[in-house]
Design a protein that fits this description.
Elements lengths: L13 E5 L3 E5 L11 E4 L5 E3 L1 E4 L6 H10 L4 E3 L7 H10 L8 E5 L14 H15 L4 E6 L9 E2 L8 E2 L7 H17 L3 E7 L3 H5 L8 E5 L7 H9 L3 E5 L12 H11 L3 H11 L3 E4 L8 H9 L8 H8 L15 E3 L31 H16 L32
Parallel strand pairs: 5-6, 5-14, 6-7, 7-8, 8-11, 11-12, 12-13, 13-14
Antiparallel strand pairs: 1-2, 3-4, 3-15, 9-10
Helix pairs in contact: 1-2, 1-9, 2-3, 3-4, 7-8
Length: 420
């Protein structure tokens, strides 16, 4: 039996032997409400939740994961670079959450780790996938992404189309070759049954066009009312790549420019500003990864609020007003991704045993500190200069995209709740 921490049998005790020595007693799964997830069908025929819990950059799974599950949340989004996968696995195990009742997304260190993480070697991806499996203590990952294209390694990147997408020195000689080799490794990990669906994150149009092989199922990028990449969104939708937003709350105008427009729309529908910001993403034809912060008094209400965005619709006029907030006017009012409403978890899935064509290489330690201090210093200075040209923004904590591209509710952010 493949080692995995999750119980799949309710009402009995299951004993697993891990690594041939350590035996773990798993008991019946914790009673939680039926999942409230709405699902989107990916281009590989598999389904993923339309809204997922982000666990990066101020959204702490130690505080928010169980409230998310208790509220009916299914999707959990992490990355090897976030440093929280072991914690997530432990929380799920300690609470006896069945494996089939959650949908786990992870990301490799590509493009935001060490130079070695962008080596043109498929083994690098396979090793990263295996490392994540070990940290979660599970037998498969539902969705695995290359975290960033290798063009972006060590750079400060922006989604503002007026500016260069990324600024800083080129650390990888042939980033397209590296991206393709890493993608080959991702496809192989999928063939091995280690991952169910594969995709990328923070890829723009040119980087997607240069990627050979299987079409990514998902491209997860920063997207909010205060900043988004229309060209890449359109390209993904034209090529049946599900576009997933992160940072929707960081770029939700609770105050400052655009806040009056969003607040008025929220009042019309008797919903919160946060829900308008999230609903806008859905009606642009995209799905969501969004955090709930680290305040134990609000993570539960935020989880319920995030999940409760399927009972109202924004009018074409309202979508037009929201699209115009950032000044990137668009006529796009793409329908919601093709979806099914589910009140039960996906069927339990098994991992297919297969022989590896690639030998597993040494797992790279993503916690190592990037040693090119001079390069990083320049990047930070450039990022500050770039941000100064973007004009005033709502004071929602850190406004510059994080180095790992996480979806972040910053600790400083206190989004208002819809009155109960």
């Amino acid at each position: 039996m493949t080692p995995a921490f999750f119980a799949t049998t309710v009402g009995m005790t299951l004993s697993l032997t891990v690594g041939g020595s350590r035996s773990i007693q798993l008991h019946s799964a914790t009673s939680v409400p039926k999942p409230r997830a709405n699902w989107v069908t990916l281009n590989d025929g598999k389904q993923m939740p339309m809204i997922n819990l982000g666990t990066c950059c101020g959204s702490k799974p130690s505080v928010g994961l169980m409230p998310w599950i208790r509220a009916g949340g299914v999707g959990i989004d992490s990355a090897i670079g976030y440093g929280d996968q072991t914690q997530i696995g432990s929380i799920l195990h300690e609470n006896n959450i069945s494996r089939s009742s959650v949908y786990i997304t992870s990301k490799t260190a590509a493009g935001c780790g060490q130079i070695a993480d962008c080596a043109a070697d498929p083994n690098v991806t396979v090793a990263s996938v295996r490392a994540s499996l070990a940290q979660f203590n599970i037998s498969y990952i539902d969705l695995m992404l290359l975290h960033r294209p290798c063009q972006q390694l060590g750079k400060a990147c922006s989604i503002d189309p007026v500016l260069s997408n990324c600024t800083g020195p080129d650390l990888i000689k042939d980033p397209n070759a590296a991206n393709n080799a890493l993608w080959q490794g991702m496809m192989h990990a999928q063939k091995l049954g280690l991952v169910k669906s594969i995709g990328v994150s923070n890829y723009n149009v040119d980087e997607l066009k240069a990627l050979g092989g299987a079409v990514p199922a998902v491209n997860q990028c920063e997207m909010s009312l205060m900043g988004y990449d229309n060209d890449t969104i359109a390209y993904c939708q034209q090529h049946n790549i599900t576009y997933e937003s992160y940072g929707a709350m960081r770029g939700c105008p609770f105050k400052g420019p655009g806040s009056t427009t969003v607040a008025g729309i929220a009042q019309t529908h008797n919903v919160s500003v946060s829900q308008v910001c999230l609903r806008w993403v859905l009606q642009r034809g995209c799905v969501i990864a969004s955090g709930t912060g680290a305040d134990s008094s609000t993570v539960g209400p935020y989880a319920k609020e995030n999940l409760d965005i399927f009972n109202f619709s924004l009018t074409p006029a309202e979508m037009g007003s929201l699209n115009a907030i950032e000044g990137l006017e668009t006529t796009s009012t793409a329908p919601l991704p093709a979806q099914t409403t589910s009140t039960a978890p996906l069927p339990a899935q098994t991992t297919t045993a297969a022989a590896s064509e690639y030998s597993a290489t040494k797992v790279h330690d993503v916690k190592r500190v990037f040693t090119a201090v001079g390069v990083v210093s320049v990047v930070f200075i450039v990022a500050i200069i770039v941000s100064s040209f973007r004009g005033p923004r709502p004071a929602l904590g850190t406004a510059v995209p994080s180095a790992t591209g996480g979806h972040d509710l910053q600790p400083a952010e206190k989004r208002p709740l819809l009155p109960q």
